Amino acid sequence: MKLKKQEIKPFDYDEVDIHVNYRKSRVLSETTPRLWLSAISKFAAVESTELIVDLGSGTGRFLEPLRSWFDASVIGIEPSANMSSEAVKEDLIDDVQIVRGRAENIPLVENSIDLVFISMAIHHFRDRPQAYREIRRILNAGKFLAIRTPTHETLNNLEWFKCFPSGLQVDIDRMLPKDDLIKEVCNSGLEFVHHTTIKQLTANTYREFFNNLSLRAVSALKQIPDEEFESGLKQFQRYCEKIGWETPFYESFDLFIFGKREQ
Fold this sequence. Notes:
The chain has 263 residues and is an alpha/beta fold. It has helices at 18-25, 32-40, 63-70, 81-87, 128-138, 152-155, 165-174, 178-186, 206-213, 226-243, and strands at 51-55, 73-78, 96-100, 113-119, 139-149, 191-203, 249-259. It is 35% helix and 22% strand. It is globular.
């Protein structure tokens, strides 16, 4: 079901308390980082990736996995003080740091980064074309941008989201179909390299995912009326009972790889 397109105000993580439960409710399964970083490293070679930017790093879920997988230094760039405050509660080692900043004005010098990684964040960029130009500026020649994100195609296949139609529409309105995303990034001067859809184990069971979802640490669900959230949660509960509470819970998202041409 498609609702009428609305003007969506940029979501501000510093105006709400979503950061309090974000890390707990959006915890990565043990296999998830390895699954995504393995796919990325087919293009961004481990042995030649020394400095990585996690752009829109949030509570820092991928900071340590990026550092350990690539044996590289990692800079998390995050505009939200609330989200950054959760990240710094972790014991960050010397090779990992967090910097306040926005994708549209990245506080790094040009030609300095070997990999820019973006996970579930491009829909929060206020000016995506400018953000992609900034990414191209800071990337070294021959290096890569990796985007982990839903697109229209994968959003429409998320079974739980169908219980929250207004929330689903929020993300449909601020995200793109796969081909449009590729075109938008390539317009910045980066070159399309690869796309795949990755199926990940999001939670060990439907029960675990339901409990996490009930914490409402999903930005789209923060933007719908409370009564719709409660109604959708009850609908999803019935769905979980039908599927089986102890069934493993999987989701599929898109991975895009773009490169900066060798000079």
